[in-house]
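Hi L.,

You mentioned the student needs an example of a multi-chain input paired with its predicted structure. This one should do, with 277 residues in total across all chains.
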Amino acid sequence: MPELPDVELFRRFFIRHALGRRISAVACPDSLVVGTLGRSSLDRELPRRVFGATRRHGKYLFARADWPGGRKKQKKPVWVVLHFGMTGSFVSIEAGQAAPPYSRVIFRFDDRSALVFVCPRRFGRVALVDCPEDLIASKRLGPDPLAADFGIQGLRRALSSRRGAVKAALLDQKALAGVGNLYADEALFQAGIHPRARVDALKPEQWSKLQRALLRVLRTAIERDVGWDRLPRGWLLTRRRERQSCPRCGAPLAQTVVGGRTTYFCPRHQRRPDVTR
DNA sequence: TTCCATGTTCCGCA
DNA sequence: TTGCGGAACATGGA
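Structure written out for the whole complex:
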């Protein structure tokens, strides 16, 4: 599930359940999940710090851990960086409650509650970095489409260096950070653009349509809390599992592979580009 | 048992 | 250099 809207909701969950709390201990029962993005020393560096701020860039979530009180102010903050892989999520537990199955990292607080990073398939990653910019630079992440400075031409600017299929470009985190397989399909559907259309063949009105559709899709998913049942009925997303008909015109949806991912689209609304196969 | 899956990354080929 | 297909990663669910 974790694409940009999901991670944004995890960020808000984190604010509710971890921000302002003092860390008493960190347990990492699964070393595979810890450290590849940065330092693995969560259990040594985090205790006695307080989570003071969060940030999100694409599918990455950052949480700043500050040293409380004035006395040790000179000590630099560290940032926890989290990536949710395919199956990562947060669970908050109260004092005395057992950690759920597949708990990979457990942040325990002074009040004995805990925030748990749960990840059944173990593609998620957690680590410490000095600042988010370091991670963003090392991964060479593209701009976040919901960032304030994305701009009205942001999408075109981000993808214009690419030349392949537009869906593959949307999925390239180095071009644009945060869009995954599901929301790429949805944005293209709502913009009426074929997933295999070439980026360099998009017309100006298609660029603005796609940007508007993408932002609308991401914002709506966040507003609706990404509950599949809560998404608008006209969306492709609500149909992709059962391989049904287009929610707009009733035509049978087409299924193919673009950029290595299963892709659904409406062959009537999203015209096949004549340039490519 | 086999196939598929929202994630990233790497390899080989054109 | 760019793009892309395919495979790998780890695991659960249909």
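You could point out the following to them. The mean pLDDT of chain A is 91. Residues 1-3, 6, 59, 83-88, 121, 123-125, 139, 173, 180-183, 261-262 of chain A lie near DNA strand B (CB under 10 Å from a C1').

Best wishes,
N.
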